[in-house]
Amino acid sequence: MNILEATKNLEKKGFMDMTVSPTLDLFAEIEKLKKEKNAIILAHYYQEADIQDVADYIGDSLGLAQQAAQTDADMIVFAGVHFMAETAKILNPNKKVVLPDLHAGCSLADSAPTEAFRNFKEAHPNHIVISYINCTAEIKALSDIICTSSNAKKIVESIPENQPIIFAPDKNLGAFINKQTGRNMLLWNGSCMVHEIFSLEKILKLKQAYPEAKILAHPECEEIILKEADFIGSTTEILNFAKKDEATQFIVATEAGILHQMEKDSPQKKFIPAPPNNACACNDCPYMKLNTLEKLYLCMKYEKPEILMEEELRLAARKPIIRMLEISKASGLIK
Ligand code: 13P
Ligand code: SF4
């Protein structure tokens, strides 16, 4: 496709569908483009290994939001999913934010449609709304505070105990935080397809085969999995635990992309992805994995697809994110 056709088809395809010569050294070209355009690549741990290796910063949702808030780059290349790139745009209206594939969505964000959520909120007018960052800009705009899996407990604890709270969209994270804090937040019925696919039976079988292995789980997993976990945390917290803990074998119940950094950090340790409840590679997030090194190169070169947003929506969505960053700073979670 030529550039005109690729631009015309951008929305349908989700990326600039242009031929890239197989002989091109994409790693070198991406480095060149970074300098030429004063661009920064922010990548989530669930991205494929090559993308993590070209990133300037790899992190969890909280770290990525903080980096996006602090960067002085002119262009933010967000190697993650749509809600993450949107968060970067909300914090940086004057910077160009590009995403390798516009179709890199999120089943959890999709589980909270705007109108249904607005009605739910209106039905509980005395509640404040805490939303997990894995939601659309529209849901953020309907929220009082945003949280991520690394700061959710602190954010909830910052609210007076007698204040009723709606927690959205992840019911598993919400239930986990309810348990941790003794609150009784009203939970929106959303979930992540990747974290709900793990098979308890297969994890327990693996545990029999590797009795010394510790089970690490993300709080987006269901309670039956969390009950078996030796450690529960965000992607960064899981990584730090695996690096510091004396165990040498770990069963990892989160998206399999995280294994790349785990193996880099601790090459002498064994990391086993927790098996899903069928034969597919369902612990690979299909949205995260839409981004490829080739699409990353194309989006940097053509500066498309770009994240754009109405100013009114941006300002409304910004408020609860800033509140989250302020609470996280005050409680020492970020600098
Ligand atoms: P964290 O990296 O914040 O733990 O988030 C996990 C996730 O599911 C992102 O999509
Ligand atoms: Fe969304 Fe789940 Fe994929 Fe994270 S792993 S982007 S929560 S679908």
Automatic annotation (TrEMBL):
<keyword id="KW-0808">Transferase</keyword>
<comment type="similarity">
    <text>Belongs to the quinolinate synthase family. Type 2 subfamily.</text>
</comment>
<protein>
    <recommendedName>
        <fullName>Quinolinate synthase</fullName>
        <ecNumber>2.5.1.72</ecNumber>
    </recommendedName>
</protein>
<dbReference type="GO" id="GO:0034628">
    <property type="term" value="P:'de novo' NAD+ biosynthetic process from L-aspartate"/>
</dbReference>
<dbReference type="GO" id="GO:0051539">
    <property type="term" value="F:4 iron, 4 sulfur cluster binding"/>
</dbReference>
<feature type="binding site">
    <location>
        <position position="61"/>
    </location>
    <ligand>
        <name>iminosuccinate</name>
    </ligand>
</feature>
<dbReference type="GO" id="GO:0005829">
    <property type="term" value="C:cytosol"/>
</dbReference>
<feature type="binding site">
    <location>
        <position position="235"/>
    </location>
    <ligand>
        <name>iminosuccinate</name>
    </ligand>
</feature>
<keyword id="KW-0411">Iron-sulfur</keyword>
<keyword id="KW-0662">Pyridine nucleotide biosynthesis</keyword>
<keyword id="KW-0963">Cytoplasm</keyword>
<feature type="binding site">
    <location>
        <begin position="218"/>
        <end position="220"/>
    </location>
    <ligand>
        <name>iminosuccinate</name>
    </ligand>
</feature>
<feature type="binding site">
    <location>
        <position position="44"/>
    </location>
    <ligand>
        <name>iminosuccinate</name>
    </ligand>
</feature>
<feature type="binding site">
    <location>
        <position position="149"/>
    </location>
    <ligand>
        <name>iminosuccinate</name>
    </ligand>
</feature>
<dbReference type="GO" id="GO:0008987">
    <property type="term" value="F:quinolinate synthetase A activity"/>
</dbReference>
<dbReference type="InterPro" id="IPR003473">
    <property type="entry name" value="NadA"/>
</dbReference>
<comment type="function">
    <text>Catalyzes the condensation of iminoaspartate with dihydroxyacetone phosphate to form quinolinate.</text>
</comment>
<dbReference type="InterPro" id="IPR036094">
    <property type="entry name" value="NadA_sf"/>
</dbReference>
<feature type="binding site">
    <location>
        <begin position="132"/>
        <end position="134"/>
    </location>
    <ligand>
        <name>iminosuccinate</name>
    </ligand>
</feature>
<feature type="binding site">
    <location>
        <position position="192"/>
    </location>
    <ligand>
        <name>[4Fe-4S] cluster</name>
    </ligand>
</feature>
<feature type="binding site">
    <location>
        <position position="106"/>
    </location>
    <ligand>
        <name>[4Fe-4S] cluster</name>
    </ligand>
</feature>
<keyword id="KW-0004">4Fe-4S</keyword>
<dbReference type="Pfam" id="PF02445">
    <property type="entry name" value="NadA"/>
</dbReference>
<dbReference type="InterPro" id="IPR023066">
    <property type="entry name" value="Quinolinate_synth_type2"/>
</dbReference>
<dbReference type="GO" id="GO:0046872">
    <property type="term" value="F:metal ion binding"/>
</dbReference>
<comment type="pathway">
    <text>Cofactor biosynthesis; NAD(+) biosynthesis; quinolinate from iminoaspartate: step 1/1.</text>
</comment>
<feature type="binding site">
    <location>
        <position position="285"/>
    </location>
    <ligand>
        <name>[4Fe-4S] cluster</name>
    </ligand>
</feature>
<keyword id="KW-0479">Metal-binding</keyword>
<keyword id="KW-0408">Iron</keyword>
